[in-house]
Every structure is written in structure tokens, then in C-alpha cells.
Write a structure and sequence with these properties.
This protein has one domain. It is 57% helix and 7% strand. It has twelve helices and four strands; from the N terminus they run ααααααααβααβββαα. Helix 3 crosses helix 11, helix 4 packs parallel to helix 6 and helix 5 packs antiparallel against helix 6. The chain is globular, with a radius of gyration of 19 Å. Bound molecules: zinc ion.
């Protein structure tokens, strides 16, 4: 599961007129909004694929499976977008990280009492730092100004290169052990896509966006070719009224990603996009890399860090 429970409550409270007012006040350009939704959908797909792979190949997990699924998602996106070679390709990962700050704040932030400390998922704010740490560790020379900012305190930053290398070797081991090769036993199996008929206008918009971007079909093809899946894995986009989530069902080998989750991504950028951009502009590293895209104003005199 991906778990966005905290924000569901906030989203329900903020539904209706208040949401619409905030959305229009913080309106961002459509391209940035769509990129944000797709970035978080991509992260979600890889996260659930992590669960599916652990189940289907019976991969031993030393630690929390949910953390592992996040690491699989982050490493897959780092590799898929060639972030090691070009740090500017980390834009989608920044967006996937930012939503966890939004989640954390939706639960009340540092003084919040909505945090599920008991949960199988790490706290939202930890999920943010885990993504940022691996991105930094993938290419530290390109991100010297990220270290020792609020986005990556030095105490964490110093271990990120080792953490990235450990994750890279683990991913490589999985691909070598369970990957497709000349001895592949199950060439006919892979990821099967299904788009349930949407009902609401926003669900229809989300499905159109998914089809237009081709991201989902491309990932399904790549993931099918990469691992020697012992059976088909159904990846379905579905209606889940009142439940903006994503999950893998090991009994039937199905991944469900709710249209409601994609709507939630859209609401998050509508309502908190302005604060996200403020954070991007306030951090010297993200401002340097993505300031143009985020529309940051003139450079600040001091190196304000978030
Ligand atoms: Zn999960």
C-alpha cells in the first residue's frame, strides 16, 4: 500500500468551495500540474511493483517491506531517468518527494497528532528524506549545495552515497537473479494493463492523461521485459470511492491504483503547489536546478535553505 490516509481526512474537510478557492488562488500551469500527477503515479507504480516482485519471486526482505518498496521506486526512477548522468532529470523525483511533505503537513507537521507512529510505513517526513538521500547519493558532485540544508541535513547527507551504492547493488542482484535472460522460463508473462471505465469528469481526465502520456504503457513494457515474472501481474487503474490509495493484492497478483489517488495528487498540487514552489526556490540546490521551471523570482541575497 502507499498510504495517504492522513491527507484523505484533510481532503474531505477541504472539499467544496474552500478547495476551489484555494485551487484557483494557487493555480499552476497545466504542464507542471500534469507532470506532478504523472511523477507521483510513476513512483506509485514502482512502489507497488516492488511489493509484487517481493511476493512473486519470494525475495527475502531484511527490514520494513514498505521502506523497501519506496527504495525500489526511488532507485527505479533514478535509473530510468538517468539521474546519475544528469541531475536535472531528478525533477520528477523531487515531485515524488514533495508530496510526502504535503502529507506530513496534512497530519499537522512537527506538532501534529495525526501521525501513525505504529504504521508499517515510515512517517511521511522520513519518506521525503529517504527519496532525497538516494537522489543526492546518486550524484553528490552535482548537488554539493543540497548538503546541509533543511532538505538534507549533513548528518543524513554523509551516509547517502553509501546508501545509494548499497541500494544499487541490491537492485542489481535482484535483476541478475530474477531478470530475463537466455534461461528465462516464463517469457509469456508480464504486466497486464487495465483501465476501468471512469465515472466522474476528473476520473475521465486522469485516464486521458495516463493514456496521452504513454508513461504507464512504457513502464509496463519495460517492467515486463526486465523481470522473469512467473505469472501475469494485473496493473489496473480503478474506481475506489472514498479511498485514494494504491495496493498490491498477493492473493490474485493484482496491483490496483485508484483514480481517486491521482485526483488526490492533483488536489495536492492545486492546494499546496505554491508552498512547494516556495521551498524549491528557497533551497539553493533545487533553485539552481529547477528555478526556471518553478518560476522562481530574482535570486535571493542570502542562501536561504528550507
Ligand atoms: Zn506499499
Amino acid at each position: 500500500m502507499l498510504r495517504f490516509a492522513g491527507i484523505v481526512i484533510a481532503a474531505l474537510i477541504m472539499s467544496g468551495a474552500v478547495t476551489k478557492a484555494l485551487a484557483s488562488a494557487n493555480a499552476l500551469d497545466d504542464d507542471l500540474r500534469e507532470t506532478f500527477i504523472l511523477a507521483n503515479t510513476e513512483f506509485t507504480i514502482f512502489h507497488e511493483i516492488g511489493h509484487a516482485a517481493i511476493d512473486q519471486f519470494d525475495i527475502p526482505v531484511l527490514g520494513m517491506e514498505e521502506d523497501t518498496a519506496d527504495f525500489v521506486a526511488t532507485m527505479s526512477m533514478i535509473h530510468g531517468h538517468r539521474v546519475e548522468a544528469d541531475i536535472r532529470q531528478a525533477e520528477l523525483l523531487l515531485m515524488a518527494a514533495e508530496i510526502w511533505i504535503a502529507e506530513w503537513q496534512g497530519e499537522g507537521g512537527v506538532s501534529g497528532d495525526q501521525h501513525a507512529y505504529w504504521d508499517v510505513h515510515s512517517l511521511a517526513i522520513q519518506r521525503f528524506y529517504n527519496i532525497v538521500c538516494l537522489v543526492y547519493g546518486s550524484n553528490p558532485e552535482a548537488l554539493p549545495d543540497l548538503l546541509d540544508t533543511d532538505a538534507l541535513p549533513a548528518e543524513r547527507g554523509f551516509v547517502c552515497e553509501d546508501m545509494f551504492e548499497q541500494s544499487r547493488r541490491s537492485m542489481q542482484w535482484v535483476l541478475e537473479t530474477y531478470g530475463r535472460n537466455e534461461e528465462t522460463r516464463n517469457p509469456g508473462f508480464g504486466i497486464v494493463l487495465e483501465f476501468e471505465d471512469p465515472v466522474t469528469d476528473t476520473q475521465k481526465q486522469m485516464r486521458r492523461l495516463l493514456k496521452r502520456s504513454t508513461m504507464v504503457s512504457r513502464l509496463a513494457t519495460e517492467i515486463s521485459a526486465r523481470l522473469d515474472w512467473p505469472r501475469d501481474i494485473l496493473l489496473r487503474f480503478a474506481r475506489c470511492p472514498g479511498n485514494p490509495d494504491a495496493y498490491y493484492n498477493d492473493r490474485v497478483a493484482e496491483i490496483t491504483i485508484c483514480y481517486e489517488l491521482l485526483e488526490h495528487f492533483g488536489r495536492t498540487i492545486d492546494e499546496q503547489g505554491a508552498e512547494m514552489i516556495e521551498r524549491v526556490c528557497a533551497n539553493p540546490a533545487t533553485r539552481r536546478l529547477f528555478g526556471d521551471r518553478a518560476g522562481c523570482a530574482l535570486p535571493r541575497e542570502s542562501g536561504a535553505a528550507r
